[in-house]
Sequence to fold (790 residues):
Amino acid sequence: MAFDPNNLMKDRITDIGPPKYDTFFPPIIKENFGKWKYHEILEPGVLVHVSETGAEVYSVRIGSARLISIDYIREVCDIADKYCGGYLRWTTRNNIEFLVSDKTKLQPLLADLRGRGNWFPIGGTGNSITNIVHTQGWAHCHTPAIDASGVVKAVMDELFGYFGSHKLPAQIRIALACCLNMCGAVHCSDIAILGVHRKPPFVENDRVQNVCEIPLVVAACPTAAIKPKKVGELKSIEINNNRCMFCGNCYTMCPALPLADGEGDGIALWVGGKVSNVKSAPMFSKLAVPFIPNEPPRWPTTVNTIKKIVEAYAEGGRRYERIGEWINRIGWERFFEKTGLEFGHEHIDDYRLAMTTWRTTTQFKF
Amino acid sequence: MSLKHATPMLDELEKGPWPSFVSDVKRMAAKGNRMCEDWLGLMEMSYRDKEGHWKHGGIVGVLGYGGGIIGRYCDRPDLFPNVAHFHTVRVNQPASKYYNTEVLRKICALWEKRGSGLTNMHGSTGDIVLLGTTTDQLEPLFYELTHELNMDLGGSGSNMRTPESCLGKSRCEWSCFNTQDVIYDITNEYQDALHRPMFPYKFKFKASGCPMDCVAAIARSDCSIIGTWRDDIRIDQAAVKAYVAKEIVPHGGADGRENRGFDIKAEVLDLCPTKCMEYDGTLKINNKDCVRCMHCIRVMPRALRPGLDTGATILVGAKAPILDGAQLSSVVIPFIKMEPPYTEFKAFVEKVWDWWMENGKNRERLGETIQRLSLREFLKATELEPDPRMVNSPRFNPYIFYDPETVPGGWEHDGVAFRQRHQA
Fold:
C-alpha cells in the first residue's frame, strides 16, 4: 500500500480521529489511572504524584519555545528514551514533562537537562511565572500587529529567575496574542501582551471587487463604519475612520483593506485576569498600558514595563493572592500608583457594557 | 556558520537564558534546509519592517475535508522562493498530549520528508501544528499520516475545532470525571463536524477535570465542561493535624518547602470565600455553604479531597473579543453526571447546534447568538429549566418579555369594554 497520486480514493482512510488517549501512556500512568492520591512539588520544576497503590511518578517540567524544529523534538526523544522509558507529554502551556517512574533516574535526568545549554530550563511549577502561551506573530500569521515568539523570548529572558523559583505570592500566567483576534485567547491572563493596530485600514479600490465579497465586508464591521462605494467604474467600499476601533475584522474578510503598519502597530498590556475558580471567580484582564511601540528585536519597553508590574505585585501581593486579587484588594488607583503606570482616556471603556466598569460609588482611595 | 540570509536582528534573540527559537531554526538551516533558510530571511525582513509578510490563506486542503489545512503564502516570493507556499497542517493531538518517542520520531520523519521541519508543539487549541509545506505535499502527507501514524487532521474554519482536555485522571487526584475519555468520545462522534464546515463559525469544546480549570475552558470554549462534585469534601483529620503541626509542607510545596509556620486560620479558614470552615483540633466544613473553589484542598492536598458524587458543570459561550467583546462561559447545566456513553450530554450538544445553525449569523460565535437572542431563548431551545445557579443575580431592569400564554386572555384587549369604563 503506497500513495498513488493518480488515484486519491485508493485505500483512502478518513475520519479516524486521534489515537485513543491512553495509547501513549507510560505503564505507571496506565496502572494508576484514577488512583492518584496527592502530589507535591519537590523543587521548582519537579513534581511527585503518589498513588493509592503507593506508586510514585516524578514529572520534570521544562520550558520550551513552542516554535520548535524536528531536531529539537528528536533531542527531547533521546532524553525520554534514556530516562523515561520513551514516554513524555506536553502541557497546555507549551512546557514538556518528562515522566520518571524509576526514582534513581531522577537526579541523572536533572543533571543531564542542566548540562544541555539553555535548551531545557527546569521550572514552571507552583508560584512561578510559567511558560508564556502565545500565537504565531510574524512567524506564520497574516494579521499580526507584533511578533509573538521574539517578544516571548525577550520577556522570558528577563523574568527567567521567576521561572525556576517559587518566590511569588502566587503563580503568574502570561499570555501573548499578536492581534485582537486572539487565537491564543489571552483575555483572562494575569498579564496579557496584545498586538494592536492604531491606523484604520486603507482601501485598495482597484482590488476590492476582485478579492472581496462587499456585503460580507460591510457586515463584518461591528461599528457600522463601512459602506459600499463606487469609485469610477470600480465597486469598492468606504470607511468612516472616526468609527474604526482597529479590530481588523474587515481585513480578515477582505485582503484589500490592509491595516498593518510599522509605526501604527504595537503592544497593549492587560493585567489581573484568571480562569481558575480558586477563592475568587474567573476574571478578565484589564487594560494597564494602551500602547507601547514595536521595538524588535528585544522590545525593551515592553519587557521593562512587565518587569515593573511583576515586581510591584511581588512586593505587595499576599500569599495565595493572584495579580487580579491583589489589585481588587488595593484598588486600581493604587495599582497605577505602585506600578508608576499612567492612567489616561484609553483606560476608560467606551464600547458596549462600558458603564459596568465606571465607578458608581464614593468609595475610592486618595 | 554562514547562512543564505544575514539575520542581525534575529541573532539578538540567541542571547539570554530562555530557549531560542532562532538558534533552533538556524541549526536546521545550517543543515541545508532551504525552507528554514528562507523563513529566517523573511522573518528578519519582518523584524526590520515591523510588519508581517504572510498573505491571507488560500483555499487548500485534502480531498473531502473542509478544514485542518490552512493555506499560507508569503508576500515576497521573489526574495524568498522556498517559503512562497508555506501551508499549515493541524494534526489532532492525542488527548492531553501524551506521546511515546516512537510516534514522535515518526511525526518528525514525516515532516522532514513532507514539510519544513518546523512545528508548534502545540497550537493554542491543542493540535500538533506542522508549519510550512507546499500544496503538492498535502495528499501524500495525509495518506502517510492516516496509514502510517494512525492519526488524522484537526479542525479549522467554521468547524468544530479540535476538542481538548486537561490530563484528568491520568495524573491528577482532583479530576471529577474522565476528561480524556469525554474528549476522545466527542472527537470521534463528531468527526464530520470537525472536518467539514457546517456551523456559523468555529465551535470549541474544552474539558477541565476540576474548578481550577487547567485548560481555561471557561475562557475559551463555546462549550466548557468543568468537573465538580455535589457531596462533601473528604477529610483526613490526622493529616489536617499533621499540617497544623507543620509535619507536612503546605500547598504541596508550591511556595517552597522551608518551614514557614503554617497558620490554618490565616491561610485556609480566613481565605475561604464562604467562610464555611472551622478548626478546633478537628476541621469542620459546612458543605452546604461550600462553593467548591478548592482553595482549602489546594493548600492541604493530603488532608482534603473532592467528594465522591462527581460530575461536571456545563457552561456555554466563551470567546475572545472578536467581535462583540470577550465573554466567559455561563452556567447552563449546574450538574451532570459525565459517564460513558455521555448520552445526555450529547443530546444537549445536538440541541445547541440545531438552534445555533438555525439562528446564528455568519461568523457569530454561540455566545454572541445567545447575547443577541437571549439566554431564555437558548434555554427554551435546549429544554433546560431556569435555575438561580445560572445567574450572578436576577435582572435589575423591569423589561420582561412576558409570554402571552402566562397572561389571562393573552395579549388581547377588549377595547370596547375598556372605553365603557374609561372616557377617552
Observations:
- The longest helix of chain A spans residues 300-316.
- Chain A has a mean pLDDT of 96.
- The two ends of chain A are 76 Å apart (CA to CA).
- The CA atoms of residues 93 and 133 of chain A lie 5 Å apart.
